[in-house]
Amino acid sequence: AMAALAQIAEQALQDLLGNQQAGEQLQPNMSGKAVELVQNRLDMQVFIYMSNLAKAMKRCGEVWLSMMRDIVVEEGRKMKVIDPQGNAASVVMNEPAYDPEEEKEYVKNSLADADFEVDVDVGPSSTSRRAATVRALTGMMQLTQDPETLAVLNGLAMMNMEGEGISEVREFFRRKMLRMGVVKPSEEERAKLAEEAAGAQPDPQSQYMLAAAQQAEAEAAQARATTVQRIADADLKKAQTAKTLAEAMGSEQDQQIASIKVLREMLQPSAPPPMPPAY
What we know:
mainly alpha, two-stranded antiparallel sheet, 9 helices, 64% helix
């Protein structure tokens, strides 16, 4: 009777959970897309259990955070963290630091003054999500012919690739995406890019383009100066012509005035001769 009850309970759990064992059995010649759809259907069937697990883990995180505020108080303690790129890293807690902008000292990576919110995400593992991302990116590459878009999609796909000895390749494509402005850099990467930009020499093509632009600007300035000089010369010639005309008109008027005076003198009657004196 006990064995029968155990078998009935097992069958009931399988029916309740959507027969997970049958869903996990991969059939031959099944495509990756079909496997992904089956896995999504199984996840939806057990959503209530995963949701309750997320709530429990969130409460554990809140309890852990309240404890860590009182525990992590010593200086120089190293702790593991996850950086914005999803990679494991380490930080030094309660590290003394100096802010040059505000000109004061402060404690870096301190939990006492930090304000956190606990968030839990329940879903596929990181490897499964990376594989799904790569499939989606490779599928999008078939829909565009733009070289820049293809380069971005290719770089993102390589950044999400999983495999042995591929970490250096991912780092290479991440640096490439940083220089293209696709990925947001971290503080360390931003400082490194600034150093590279300050110490980098411009390539010959950039130097040629800069020299050509400067030469074109100089030629345009010279052309403007030549045009201004020509306009000034034309105005000077106009002024000289007006002066010559004015002088010619003045001399003509002087001649007319002199002629009028001569005519006036000729038209005036001559004075009578003087009378002889009387004796």
